[in-house]
Amino acid sequence: MSGWGPRAFVAGTLGAILAHAAVDFVPALFQRGQVSAEVATVELIVLTMICARPFLLEKKRVERPDCKAACRVLLPPRTP
Questions:
Q1: Of 11, 19, 76, 3, nearest to 53 (Cα)?
Q2: CA–CA separation, 47 and 42 (whole Å)
């Protein structure tokens, strides 16, 4: 985690906890019979797409053709 301080670590951890809680909330309501299966499914699909966006943006940033070694933080270089 070079270049990342404790504040970034805490913010990332809290963000991951909140995202996980948001994704689990409506399916928990479905299990209790308070929402339909369709609502729970749509909510899961939408929140999964929203939560996947940061990973896809990081992947796009790392795979840039002008990327130097500093860009390869999370993903190894792609081999042909």
A1: 19
A2: 9
**Cα(5)–Cα(73) distance, integer angstroms:** 15
Q: Yes or no: say if 63 and 71 are a contact pair by the CB < 8 Å rule.
A: no
DSSP 8-state assignment for residue 72:
-
Residue type, 72: R
Question: pTM of the predicted model, to two decimals?
Answer: 0.54
Please state, for a pLDDT cut of 70, what percent of the chain lies above it. Answer: 70
Contact 39, 23 (CB under 8 A): no
Query: Going along the chain, which residue ranges are E strands?
Result: none
Is the pLDDT at 73 greater than 90? The verdict is no
The 10s digit of each residue's pLDDT in 44-68 is: 889 888 878 877 877 777 666 665 5
Coil, helix or strand for 5? coil
